[in-house]
Design brief:
This protein is an alpha+beta fold. The chain has helices spanning about 15-65, 85-90, 140-150, 155-160, 160-165, 225-239; strands at about 70, 100-110, 115-120, 130-140, 170-180, 185-190, 195-205, 205-220. It has one domain. It is built from 6 helices and 8 strands. The chain is elongated, with a radius of gyration of 30 Å.
Length: about 240
């Protein structure tokens, strides 16, 4: 007698439709998860494009409002930069303001006057050009109040990739009153025994310092440097 006909053999009622439904459910779940993984990069890319468009619109608004000189100009690309040329470019006889994208370095106060400090690479090649200018602009407390009360986040990525990942980029409209080159600086130290002082004269690369007044600053965030990377790519494609 076979087991199936044996009354003592336990009968198994297998619900095949239920098993099939469960299998189909997990297959659909897997496909949906895969679709989301494929869709997520496209969504992020779309968000970045929208953000860049918004930042371009802000920049165009500032251009229309102030009719500024855009800095740095393309004719500085790949050329030696002299203080004379920078002074001619930035200290305007026509009184036009300067518009640049700069990374916020610091906010200070001196004798009840506030100053905002930026760093700007001296070309569109923000990835490789080491030449830069620091801009120290007198401003109103209202210009920096929100930054003082709510400083931007600063994580370990900022330490390792500060220029590319920092969020504290701004569109800056300013009027420059002075430009000079930082030629060298001296570092004081002592020998290991501590018996005598030593001085090290360190020559810097092309680093300039500008002073002036802030006209307006608008946050560009990380999109600011991405805008410039896009311009750099466009510039090299034309070549």
């Amino acid at each position: 007698m076979s087991d199936k006909n044996n009354p003592n053999f336990p009968q198994q009622n297998i619900n095949y439709p239920l098993i099939l439904a469960i299998v189909l459910f997990f297959l659909c779940l897997s496909c949906d998860s895969q679709g989301k993984r494929e869709f997520k990069p496209e969504l992020e890319e779309a968000k970045k494009k929208i953000e860049l468009q918004q930042k371009r619109a802000i920049m165009n608004t500032l251009i229309n409002r102030y009719d500024p000189i855009l800095f740095p100009p393309k004719n500085l690309e790949g050329k030696k930069i002299y203080t004379y040329n920078l002074r001619k470019l930035l200290i305007r006889e026509d009184k036009k303001p300067i518009l640049f994208i700069g990374m916020l370095d610091d906010i200070t106060e001196k004798y009840s006057d506030f100053f905002v400090h930026f760093t700007r690479i001296l070309s569109k090649n923000v990835l490789f050009d080491k030449r830069r200018i620091t801009l120290h602009l007198k401003c109103r407390y209202e210009d920096v109040k929100s930054l003082i009360e709510n400083p931007p986040n600063y994580g370990w990525l900022n330490l390792r990739f500060s220029y590319l990942l920092a969020e504290d980029y701004f569109f800056v409209v300013s009027k420059i009153t002075d430009v000079r080159k930082i030629v060298s600086y001296t570092v004081r130290g002592s020998v290991p025994e501590g018996t005598e002082d030593v001085e090290l004269d360190i020559e810097t690369p092309d680093v300039f310092r500008a002073e002036g007044e802030l006209v307006e600053m608008v946050k560009a965030g990380n999109a600011g440097v991405r805008l410039e990377i896009e311009e750099m790519k466009s510039h090299f494609r034309k070549k």
